[in-house]
Amino acid sequence: MFYFYQKVFLRYLIWLAMGFLPFILKSEYYKDCLVLTLLWAGVAMGWNILGGYAGQLSIGHAAFFGMGAYVSTLLYMNYGLSPWIGMLIGGLMAGGFAFLLGLITLRLRGPFFVLATIAFAEVIRISAISWRSLTRGSLGILIPFNLGFWNMIWRGKDAYIWLTLVYMLLVYIVCRTIESRKFGYYLVALRENNPAALALGIDTAKMKARAAFISAFITAIGGSIYAQYIMFVEPSTVFGIMCSVQMSLIAIIGGLGIAGGPIFGAFLLIPLSTFFRGALTKYSGLNGLVYGFVLVFVILFMREGLLPKISELWERWGNIYYNIIKKRKHILDK
Amino acid sequence: MNNFVQVFIFGILSGGIYGLVSVGLTLIFGVLKLVNFAHGEFLMLAMYLSYWSFKFFSIDPYAGAILTVILMFCFGYFIYNILMKPILYEPHVVQIFATLALSMILQNVALLFFKADFRNVRTAYSLSVLNIGWFKLSSPNLVAFVIAVAAAISLYIFLKTTDIGKAMRAISQNDRAARLMGINIDIIYMFTYCIGVALVGLAGVVLVPIYSIYPTVGSSFVNPAFVCVVLGGLGSVPGAVLGGLTIGIVESLTGFYIGAEFQQAAYFIVFLIILIIRPQGFFGEKEEII
What is the ipTM of this complex? Predict the structure, then answer.
């Protein structure tokens, strides 16, 4: 229905329009929801690079998210280093860990890799709790409210909306770039058929490690932004398994291996979750229950995710419509 | 020295429990080639079942064990037909996330209906301790260990002698060949899954007098269970028990000599080391590295 350039134009128009949302949404509640949605969309897109394109499902990405959060926070609290720089350092550190992890776990397939990532994240979490002299353990670190651009702290939520919007946009551009380059095709190759990729001469181990690095870097930056938004970091939230599962859930439900998939998933799941958490507090488990049911439904019936399914339906209906129009025109011409 | 032996003995006892939880998991892993991330939640459900029968009908957990195990068997049948059968031949992504979703659903259903309060079953023998020489053994732990070993041995004998057991072993070695030999794969898959769930149900029953019951109790046991399964080798029952004992001892010694908070990290680190050095575990077969 839409031609290619129209599609691209529409996409960036939507981004621009979203930039104006802070002026439209008046309520702090909706703004908070938007910030979290955009942030998780970016983080999930980062996860998607390793999980979707390379097919290495990691339920331990919270390790990198938390690493980004803690590194930037600790550098800020102890040395006054601006979070803008701290976030890059956190990203590099997380990337380094991910690279090592990628090299170590290269022989593991399927469920073993998942278990290894879970184990890794738990070890990092427990270390963060036990190393009290560094991280203040389970007490967490409260970031003081010093306003300023260099501190990445602003009054109100508008600036955070723009920050997370830019973050999500940059991550999206990174994903699309990877998708269209050789590197992206290598990752898809090693996901679909590892032996065949090796036979073609692709160094799968190095590609996996590289994807892990990029993925962890992006996730860690998201973690730093999260820390600066919430102004409080503690091990169970940023290193917890619920954090990892949420990332992967958004990517899977939205669309695995597609750049825009996690965005769709985030816009679906985060507002839903925020609504359930707030509105139905009487029924405490409903939030997770809905997540679980949506996941089962998507994984059984629409394996690639909701976005591909919706595009497919869109194309199909577009074709039917187009054919009807064509037939009508033909009759009129006669 | 006395301390060491006491801690070691406690490690063996708790290792038996881990072994019992992992035996069901390794069976499902080995025969169905399915990672059951919802294993901990079945444990939690069995514990709640035991708890409610104690609360409403005053049935002692051990006395109600048979009933609980049978109910868990039926529940396994139910879950298998609804969720497991469609995903058996699907790629790993689907299997992992479907079982993960099941675990989320079960956890949150328990949270919704039973609330997050910690519940306890206090029976006459909950706090009793046996003194053997210099050392003390807590009775519920000892009973759990004995039941775990008995269950593991009977399962082993079952797998070695009965026809169904041999069919299960055949499928775990090569499912296509088993199919060609005339084994009804679907029935055996279903049976294996139900047995696996029933075993973890038994584990839940023996854990009730010892630990508190809350919706996420499953995850504290399923993580060591995965480590035991990998340590012992997929599909190997003696391996799972041996792995369980190892993990129990490692955890116990770490807790006493290094620090209580490092107990969990200890077995995760063991897990990572095993995956790097010897992914097939004690008794597993070396798989092609591709």
Answer: 0.86
